[in-house]
Amino acid sequence: MLSNEGSPVSDLTATQPPPVPTADAAAPPRWGFWGTCGWGAAALAAFYAAQIVAVVGVLVLRGIDPEQAAPADFASLGSSSVVVAATTLSSLPATLLVLALAARLARIRFVDYFALYPVGARTMLLALACTLAYGALLDVVTYALGHPVLSPFVVDLYQTARESGTLWLALVAVIIAAPITEEFLFRGFLFRGWARSRLGAVGAVALTSLIWAAMHVQYDWLGVTEIFGLGLLFGWLRHRSGSLITTLAMHAVYGAAAMIQVAVLAG
To answer: Where are the domains of the chain?
Structure first.
């Protein structure tokens, strides 16, 4: 059901972002805990359905009958730049359409529901410093544990993109499409509904991070742990800044840094 907590936000034409301590507290009404769960599940269903359609389309274009495709055929597509780009780009509009419908039925403007508010330079610089520091720390820990600093998935993605001449498409998927889709769903919609439930902001950050990490089955346990930690950082940044713009930008930065790193070390 819809929750009627909170008061309307100030006019979005104002040039200053909402005050940090009260940014989420002043948010307009939203879907409650169970409504958020239901719409979140619908968005995830659309997300995966679009990806399945994209994979089937790639198989057909390669002359492979999807009904007769062997497991090896699907495995070979896992880190293909064309497949990653196709699935990522196709899931973007499918997911956003569901989330936009949820916001419309809640009778709240899209920019309000997803907290698309301006962010000050100081806040953005702090977010950038935290994001880059987290990435550097992960590299040190990964190396100390004896694991490859570069994720095999990212290496394969980069190499297949170069070989097929689709590097630009892979970059669009990693730096633009994936951040938009995942941030609108996790730090946008799910965080919004769960943070003002009994879970509170801390519980919402933890739960969204856990689900987000569990989705990244292309990585090993260390990679999934990295995603979980990144989710905690992004959740904190979203809560502190009161704006989704912060994590949209930092997610793009993190993806770009990963691609630059693999280009330098494995290129």
So the answer is: 21-266
Other Cβ atoms within 10 Å of 143 Cβ, number: 11
CA–CA distance, 103 with 98 (Å, rounded to integer):
9
Q: Nearest CA to 258 among 173, 151, 143? A: 151
Report d(CA 117, CA 136) in Å as an integer.
29
218 in Cβ contact with 87 (< 8 Å): no
Structure tokens at 233: 């950082």
- Taking the CB of residue 46, how many other CB atoms lie within 10 A of it? 18
Dist. CA 27–CA 5, nearest whole Å = 9
Query: Can you give the pLDDT at residue 55?
Result: 86
Joined tokens for residue 74: 């699907």
Helices and strands counted in the chain (H then E): 12, 2
Specify the pTM.
0.85
